[in-house]
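Sequence in, structure out.
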Amino acid sequence: MSDDGGFPWKPTCVASTSLSSGILQGTSSGSTQAAREIKETPGGDRQSPNYFKSADWSPDGTTIITNSADNHIRTYILPPDLLEERESPHELSPYSTLPSAEPIYATAIYPYYSLQDPSTTLFLSSVRDHPIRLTSALAPTTAATYSLINPTTEAFITPHSILYPSTLGGTHFLTGSDSLICLFDVSRPGSDGPVSMMPTIPSKRKQIVGGGVGMKGIVSALAVNPSGDGILAAGTFTRHLALYSSNGSGELIGTFSVARTEADRHINGKGITQLLWSPCGRYLYVVERKSHGILMYDIRVTGQLLGWLQGREAFTNQRLKADVVAAGSEGSHEIWAGGTDGFMRTWRNPSDSVGAKDPDWEWKAHDDPVAATILHPSGSIVGTCSGQKHDPHYHSTQRASDEFSIMAGDNSLKIWAL
């Protein structure tokens, strides 16, 4: 396909952070010193090797919250004249920045976030070896913390996934960690811990009495069915899926593995990183690391592989986030996902086909892997962010005469009008 990929329209970049792509050039100060300086420069500017790891829209569509490799969470508020015609895209800069000393494993935005009401502009984040934080997106202050502690070692358990669904009324949130799903009450911060803990593997006693099925491994993805039936899907790095009733607090409906399927021979997969429900709630899309595509399951028949979306170009351990959006007539929807080649791809009405499905459209969005693809609640705007780890020392040795160049990569957040 060409860069426009046969799109019925031309996606237009209407806003972007300062691009870090291209080459930083210097003269006689020495490439080693420049490499050190480039490493120490704060993220988000032209000289930083920092890169975006993930991004999320706020429910009201006014704000994007990002997580970067420098362990900083940044809040971007979009300009009100975003879609008005202008000669060049808006330049985005962080409204606020929340730094962390340790890596951030997961984030989740309050489901009733509204920029018109600052008391609602909150998000959760899990930081390694720390309690879960509830923080204001407008000011880097922590409103509350929630502890999840290993009773044997007394060490903090860091969730690899957090879900803050509107189906729980904004009063509770769910976390996924090693063979464990927990339910927290937002009104009960501190050291009390979760209000319920649900192991994803049966206890020894249950195994003796009547057996039991479950899934072992880090619960790396959580998603609640949007149809209103309250089915929670949970996925692990060990490539298992489980379905639970009552938004995760009810009974186990079933478990199955996504390994050793027909799709494995075509797109591979080494662990679930994201789960997406179709808007109608009938189909579940499974995003994996080191995979060239996305799995598609008909959830009405638990564990039945309907097909797979191929051609994604995402064979990497890096999490590359996809999104789903309703489109056109009732039941129609699209899957949007980026790849390591910087291309954005769209699969239209994937549930209409069985087996392999190629992308319908694609276009070049970035010069580095597309770390996240996020659709605006309106469906007419898409956000993308990019980047990957680069080795400045390696590039600093690529020197010609008295000049040198250091590849900083494409570390950018872009907003596209469709």
